[in-house]
Amino acid sequence: MTYCVGMVLDRGLVFMSDTRTNAGLDNISTFRKMTHWEVPGERILTVMTAGNLATTQAVISLLDERTKAPDDREPSLLKAPSMFQAARIVADTLKDVIAKHNKNGQQAASAFNATIILGGQIKGGPTRLFLVYPEGNFIEAGEDTPFFQIGEMKYGRPILVRAYEPGMSFEEAMRLLLVSFDSTLKANLTVGLPFDYHLYSDGSHELGKNGRIGVDDAYFQTVSQGWGDALKTALDSLPTFDLD
Question: Which of 32, 119, 175, 176 has the highest CB neighbour count under 10 A?
Fold first, then answer.
């Protein structure tokens, strides 16, 4: 299973993904689910994937291969004139990969499905965030839907819905996402550390602050313990139910 979040802020975009993959309780491994393509000063694109690992890796490999020699390979994310056209490239690639796998083997409708979050900025256009579906269509984040989740989303969604503010700082957004991810991994063992993140500043057109939150990260441990304690305190502060 997977948990990834892409979020739109006034100051840019925030991305976070877990790294756990599993095929049963005795076959758990770590695999990076966030990928970047960058032409400094001209464009930056970040992709996060969830779903069938063979499908997502095939999509990423195809997209990456086309960027290695953009004059010879089409269509390339490095030549897309806009984020909308980049989203079309990602969507078409995902749809084609799923269709090829279905034709060559197993026919179960969801066996090779995957979903993708794409965000970034191409010079001359705005910062944009898209959610790409396995059918090859996609939607864009906006005021009514300022963040996207893929994978195991239900456990971490309540805190995002309640606490998200578009004007929050990157530091505040990181705190919010870590609480969301902590809630998810405590409820579902198929989501786990480490977490990858990327903070993109609007107008920079280059890879922003990025890194990995590991199992022994002191700040994450503080947030996890503090959030648990705060929930208990809040619960204790509420009136007790009266059975009389």
Answer: 119
